[in-house]
User: Fold this.
Amino acid sequence: MKIGEVARRTGLTERTLRYYEERGLVDPPRQGGGHRVYDGPTLERLYRVMLLRELGTPLDEIPRTGDDLLTTVRRHLADIDSRVARLARTRERVRSTEELLEREETPTDEHLLAMLSGIGSEEPALTRRLTLLVYRDLEAAAAYLVDTFGFTPGPLTRDDSGRVVHAEVHAGDGLIWMHRETPDFGLASPSTLGGATACMAVSVDDAVAHHERSVAAGATVVYPPTAMPYGVLEYCARDPEGVLWSFMQPKEGTTHE
Assistant:
């Protein structure tokens, strides 16, 4: 890519890209006539620089060589997880205040100070939800959720025989673990039970567009996008093992979740 295309795609200015080059942070090769060409290694290096900048690393402290890309990405992910945890704690304090006001109760001075200063309870904070679903065929179920509903794939763990015994997929900010059937713990797929005991709900930014995508991918839709009395536009679909998935978008003018 030429420098103009890289600038357009990354949101950086050409001036910034040239400055990075002057500082020795990137070194794009030149074509005939001296034109810069951002090849694969140069783009990977630029990505590393941008991640480190996102982490707050001053330009003077960004190594010209050193950490591989995986290490840098893991550092960035850890930083994002830390921010999400802080926001989750803050959100819970604000939500509790909203609940008081909705009941027409006056928050105490201590409550307001805690919310404003970020000082919460000494109790361990709940920072992230993790859902566990049980399937007969973990590999097929994970592939279906990724291909049909657009979830992000995670790792597959196999036993010595090659059978998948644990799978993960990501849905927005939530992580879904997929567990094999285990009679000792009473864990069974809805297809084994003959019915689901729970429904998975996922927020989407556009329920209609997501519904169209799922239908095009072959989803078994239970009902199309429908305005619900609890403040969302929602549609439901079942996966091949009978888990009921609800995809919902808050309706305009409501904050209900």
